[in-house]
Amino acid sequence: MHIHGLSVEQALASLNTTAAGLAGPEAARRLAEFGPNHVEEVGREHLLIGFAREFTHFFAIILWIGAALAFLAEHFDPGQGMARLGVAIVGVIIVNGVFSFWQEYKAEKAVAALRQLLPQKVQVLRGGEVTQLLASGLVPGDVVLLAEGDFVPADCRLIETLALRVNTATITGESLPKARTTEASTEDSPVYARNLVLAGTSVVSGEARAVVYATGMRTEFGRIAHLTQTAGTGSSPLQREIARLSRIVAVLATGMGVVLYFVGQAVGLPPLENLLFAIGIIVANVPEGLLPTVTLSLAMATQRMARRNALVRHLPAVEALGSTTTICCDKTGTLTQNRMSVQRLWLGGGFLDVGDLAGQARLREDNRELFANAAFCHNLKIVEANGRHKLLGDPMEAALASIGRQMTGELAAYRRIDEIPFDTDRKRMSVLCATPRGRMLYCKGAPETVIAACGHVQFDAGLVPLDPVVRTRLLAAQRQMAEAGLRVLAFAHVAVPDGMPGEEHGMILSGLVGLEDPPRPEVPEAVARCATAGIRIIMVTGDHPQTALAIARRIGMVKTENPMVISGDQLRSISPAQLQLALDAKEIIFARVAAEQKMLIVQALQKKGEIVAVTGDGVNDAPALKTADIGIAMGIGGTDVAKEAADLILLDDNFASIVAAIEEGRAVFDNIRKFLTYILSSNIPELVPYLAFVLFRIPLPLTIIQILAVDLGTDMLPALALGAEKPDPGVMQRPPRARHERLLSWSLLARAYLFLGVLEAAAAMAVFFVVLNAAGWTWGVNLDRTDPLYLQATSACLATIVVMQMMNVVLCRHPSKSAFALGLFGNRYILMGLAAELAVILFIIYTPPGQWLFGTAAIGAEVWLLALVGAALMWALEEMRKAWLRRRLSP
C-alpha cells in the first residue's frame, strides 16, 4: 500500500523510524545507501559534440564539399583564386556554426534550475533533538519540522499538523493553497494525497511535523526533472524546411555539375578546365549566403520580439511560433493574474459586486460582523513596510483580510483571544475576538459546513430562521457564484458570553463571499485575435474543471453550451487513439492533469499534424514545454525550470505578448521566402555564363570568385534587409500555414529561376558581349585570364548582375503588391542594403585590392547605363506580372 494510505503509526513503522526521528549513525548509513537529496543529471551530450554538430548538418556538409573542391582545383591549377574561394566558404561555415552554437549554449540548464528550487537548510529531529542541516543530507525516515514560509525539502508523510496549508502550484498547477491533514488518504496519486507534502512546494500557513519517505530523484519533483531531461526535442518546421532545401540544392548542384562535366568532355574541353567548369556549376548552384542570411534574419527577429516582451532562447523557435496551429495554455498565472481577489458577495439576501462596497457606510454598518470576520479570521502575518501594512501568507486569506480591513472601523478595538484552527473534517476555521460589542466568535469555511452550524441568516430586514426554504435559496446563490468560477466561502458569527468557550453552533450566517483568480484584462482580445488567425487554444490546467470552464467562458475561449471537459482521472482511463479522437472536439478543456499527461496531450496533437505551442510557469509544465514544437514560459511568475525548458520566455507574463510573437513569427516565414527568392534569382545569371562557356566556346563571363562576391558580398545585406520587413497588415487575418506547405515552393522557384533569374542572366550576358564587341572581339577568339579586355568584360557582367539584384531587392519585398504600394522608405534597411551593395561593387571594380582579389578592371559609365536599362526593363515586366496576379486573385 502507498504510504499515504497508511495511518501515522503504520507510516513510521514502514520506514523503520519514530516520531523522534532517526539516530545519527542510522541516518549516516541511510545517506550512504540512498545518496544525497538532490536532483541528479542523466547522461547528456557533451558540449563539444553539440558544438561539432553545428558544423556537420547537411547544408554545412554541402559547403564543406564546395570548399574541398575549390582547394582541389587550386592544387591542380594554382593561381586562379580557388584557394581564396575555399577559405571564404570555410569562413562562412565557421561563422554560422559559432553563432548558432552560442544561441543554443544555455538551452540545457533545467537541472541546475531544479536544484536551486530546493531549500538549502532544514530543521530535523535526530534522536529527539532538533538540529539544522543541509537539505541534501536528508534521508528516508528523517522527521522534519515545517513552518509558514518553508519550502518542503523532500516528499514527506505528515505526522502532526496545525492549520497547515501548502502551495502546490509548482507541482499540480492549482492556484489555491491546499489544506493538509495527518489522516490516511484514499487518493490514487500521491500528488493529490492530503496527508503528503511534496518536494518543491511551500508552506503557506500553519506548522507541521513530517517524516521523509522519498528523496532526490525518487521524489515527485525528481520524477518531473527526469521527464524534463529525457523528453525529446524535435526539429522545428524551419529546420526541417532548411534540411529539405539543402537536399534539393545538393541534388541539383551535384547533378548539374556531373551532367555538364560530361557535356564538356563531349565538346572536347580539356580535363582540368572541365573540372574547374564542373566546380563552377556546383558553386553557382549552392546559395552560400542562404544559411548566414537565415541565421541573421532569425537573430534580428529575436530582437524585434524582445522589444515586444518575448525573449527567444532558440533561433528556430521564431519561425516555429509563426506556424503554430494550437496553443496548449495553462490557466493559473498565464490567462489569470495568479492572485486571489474578492469579486462578489451575497449579503442581506441579495448579490453585491465588490465594486459597489466603496462609500457605502450603511452597508458596512449593517454587515460589520462579516467584514470583521474577514479582517481577523486568518493566519496571516501583518508586517509594516514603508509606513503601510503588508499581509503575508495565503493569498486567499490576504484578499479577504484586505477587504475586511477596509470595511471594518477601528481595528485597534479588536483583539484575538483564541482560535479553532482549520481542519479537513470541519472545513472551517474560527477565531474568538474581543470587540467593541463584546466577545464574538467569527467563523469562515466551506458553505455546506458553516451553514450546517448556523441557526439564523442575516437579511436586510433582520435575522431569519434557517429553514429549508432559506437553505434552498442559499444553495442556489452558492451554485450561481460557483458557476461563475468563484471560490465560495460562508461567513458566520455568534456572541460568546464572558467566561464561556467559543463554540461553532447556533451561529448567524453573515453572508457568502466569492473569490477568484481574475483573468488578465488583455487576454480576451488576445484570444479573439488567435481565433481570427485560425489558432486553436486548449486550456490545460491542474485546477478544478468548473473553475477552468468558468475562466474559459469569461475570456471567450469557450462559447458553446457543452464544451468537452476532460479531467486527469478520465485521461488516465482512455487510450491514445481515444485521446486523439477527443481532440477533434471544437472546444475542449483539460483539468486536473499531471505533468506526464500534459506531454501526452502535446504528443497526441502532434500526431494529428498540429504545430503545438505550450505555455506554462511551473515545474510541472517543464516536460510539456520541452516536448512541444515551441515552449513558452512566463518570465516573471515562471520557475527557472520552466524557463530553461522553454524556447520562448514572456518577459511581462502577458498572454497577449504571445499574439505579438506569433505575428512576428509569421512575418519571419514570409521574409525568408522573400530573401530566398532574392538569393535564388542570382543563381541563374551565375549559372548561364558557365553554360555559355562550354556550349558556345566563349571566354568565361563570370569567375567562381566573382560568384562568391555576389553570394557573400553584395547580396548579403539586402537579403538581411528583406528579413527585417515588418509584418504584413493581413498576416493575422489568415489561417496558419499548412503543415505540408513548403518554404521552397514551385511558384517561388518559377519566379526566381524562370522569370527574375532569366531576366538578370539575359541582361548580364548582353552587357558582357557589348563590352567584348565594342573592343573588336570576334567569335572563337580565346582571351587570356589576365587580358585587360577580358577583365573589363567579366567586370561588366558582374556589375550588371549586382545592379539587377539592387532592383530585385525592391521587387522581392512582396510577391504580389506593387513596389509603389510599399514605399521605399517603409524599410530603412533596404536603403542601407542598397548603399552597402553599391559600395561593395565599386570597391571590387575600382580599387586595386578589389581588382586583385576578384579579377576585375575598371569599366566605363556606358556599362552602368546599360545595366540600369536592364534593371528598368526587369522592373516593368515584374510590375506587369504582379498586376496580372492581383487581377487573378481578386474575387
How are the secondary structure elements laid out?
Elements: H1 8-14, H2 24-34, H3 47-53, H4 58-76, H5 82-104, H6 110-117, E1 121-126, E2 129-134, E3 143-147, E4 155-167, H7 169-172, E5 178-179, E6 196-197, E7 202-214, H8 220-230, H9 237-266, H10 271-285, H11 290-307, E8 310-312, H12 317-322, E9 326-329, E10 341-347, E11 350-353, H13 361-366, H14 368-376, E12 381-385, E13 388-392, H15 395-407, E14 415-423, E15 428-435, E16 438-445, H16 447-452, E17 454-459, E18 462-465, H17 468-483, E19 487-495, E20 507-516, H18 523-532, E21 536-540, H19 545-554, E22 564-567, H20 568-572, H21 576-582, E23 588-591, H22 595-607, E24 612-616, H23 622-627, E25 630-634, H24 640-645, E26 648-650, H25 655-681, H26 683-695, H27 704-714, H28 716-723, H29 746-774, H30 788-811, H31 819-822, H32 828-846, H33 848-854, H34 861-889
Parallel strand pairs: 9-21, 9-24, 17-20, 21-23, 22-23, 24-25, 25-26
Antiparallel strand pairs: 1-2, 1-3, 3-7, 4-5, 4-6, 4-7, 8-26, 10-11, 10-20, 12-13, 14-15, 15-16, 16-19, 17-18, 19-20
Helix pairs in contact: 4-5, 4-10, 5-27, 9-10, 10-26, 11-25, 11-28, 14-15, 18-25, 21-22, 25-28, 25-29, 26-29, 28-32, 29-30, 29-34, 30-32, 30-34, 32-33
